[in-house]
Design goal:
The structure is a homodimer. Chain A is built from eight helices and ten strands. The first copy, chain A, is of the alpha+beta class. In chain A, strand 5 and strand 6 form a beta hairpin. The structure holds a DNA duplex.
Chain lengths: 248, 248
DNA sequence: AATAGACGTCTAGATAAGTAGACAAATCAG
DNA sequence: CTGATTTGTCTACTTATCTAGACGTCTATT
């Protein structure tokens, strides 16, 4: 295989190879539980020294995708590609495949006087402050998403108090009398994770995150909540649900 | 600013800095038409030599994001973040912001006996061959997406003949009697562009693509078309349209 | 138990990336 | 026009990455 040189890409050789191997693992070319090619074979395939291959594999070990067994080989660790459904009444906790032990943990909340411009306009704040809530989502013990939500304090009085008591955004919303809401807007983009995100999700720097920005509104159309969720792209794909529309 | 070292990330320093600067341009921290900080200032900010900054900026020049003017400075070139809407009856050509001169060019088509497993199952091919069509999408002269579509040849006889005549997938479908269809499934993921994609979209290698896989079906629910579209993530975000649901 | 094959570790040398600084060329303000 | 500022180019040097190969340790098979 002709391979790109680091000089052209700005990637070190070991990272280029690690990225290539990861994609082959994720797309199933190397099936879970099976043995990877030996380091020597991979060195031949990519035309590099075995030491470079070892550095690449070290990345995948760090990420938990493969395990090395001395004397035996390198094996693909069973992994799940999580499918996160975006639909009308979905919450962050709804994952398509069951059973997954998903938990959402609020890690901080704070009333901010001047939220970012996009938040203010999407929530029609017009100068009012917003309650900002940071959460992380874990599935089976692995952190897969990092979320920031903003609420109009005028619509959700004492939401932060209830949040501290219940330690759950959904329960806190119920406590302030909000039971039902629908997603009215979503935008999806992708970028390199920043340092905080990489740290919170235990990702190697340079990892890709899928960014979902969305607005949930009350049934009368009043915007209630603006959320920006960053999913780790190596483990999550977004499933856009059109089934609610099938009845038309 | 404390910055990540290349040793930890596998990125060369100039690429780390280029990525950072690009994200600040794309998110508006450096507004279009304005002057960037001088190379010396950037060198101070990132704690590197000016030569390294120059290499980073060369990447952005290559990508068309900034322009250098000797003696004057480096300036942010006006650019657009394209918003691509995913909804019930959207096609690749529908972009949210107008006016954009969008064109879809079929670049190759071929009948393949054994399409990938996911294609076969989503289209319920059960062993039948599929017509595979490769297209690129340009907006204002810039290629922003690379798409691969598969059709069940049993449902679309002579589609390839009409495609060669009309040079348009939509027109070719109309010619075989298919006027209306709806999107029944979509999944969104993100990854590093492979070499072919990077070449077709004129991207630096290592760029991120948003991958949208989707199935369009006839109104009776028969799956018609499986499509995988790779958008360049630096210029495109996906807008998920729930407005069809507002009437409920 | 012997052995081949695989991962683990180390040292030395070659190549590429980044630093350092000097000077040229273009631009702009006064 | 003058001078300060900014990008353009070059050479020498330092540091990090990659190659090369030897040798050790562990595992599975015969």
């Amino acid at each position: 295989m002709t391979f790109l040189t680091r000089s052209a890409t700005g990637y070190s050789t070991w990272r280029l190879i690690a990225d290539q191997l990861r994609s082959e693992i994720v797309d199933g070319s190397f099936a879970p539980e099976t043995k990877m090619p030996t380091e020597g074979e991979l060195a031949d395939r990519f035309g590099v020294h075995r030491n470079t291959i070892r550095q690449s594999i070290a990345v995948l070990v760090e990420e938990g995708l493969v395990a090395r067994r001395q004397g035996s080989g390198t094996f693909v660790v069973p992994h799940t590609l999580l499918v996160h459904r975006i639909g009308l009444r979905t919450r962050l906790s709804n994952s398509a495949r069951q059973p997954d032990a998903t938990s959402n943990r609020p890690i901080a909340s704070e009333i901010v006087a001047n939220p970012p411009q996009e938040v203010a306009s999407r929530l029609r704040l017009e100068g009012r402050p917003a309650l900002q809530i940071e959460t992380v989502a874990d599935v089976n013990g692995t952190t897969i998403a990092r979320s920031t939500a903003w609420f109009d304090v005028a619509l959700t009085p004492d939401l932060d108090v209830h949040l501290r008591q219940t330690r759950s955004v959904t329960k806190a919303l119920r406590a302030v009398g909000i039971d039902d809401y629908v997603r009215t807007w979503s935008a999806v983009s992708a970028r390199i994770a920043n340092r905080v995100e990489a740290e919170d999700m235990n990702l190697p720097s340079g990892s890709i995150v899928l960014v979902v920005r969305s607005v949930n509104s009350l049934l009368d159309g009043t915007p209630l909540q603006y959320t920006s969720t960053r999913f780790r792209a190596d483990r999550v794909e977004l499933d856009i649900d059109f089934s609610d529309l099938a009845g038309h």
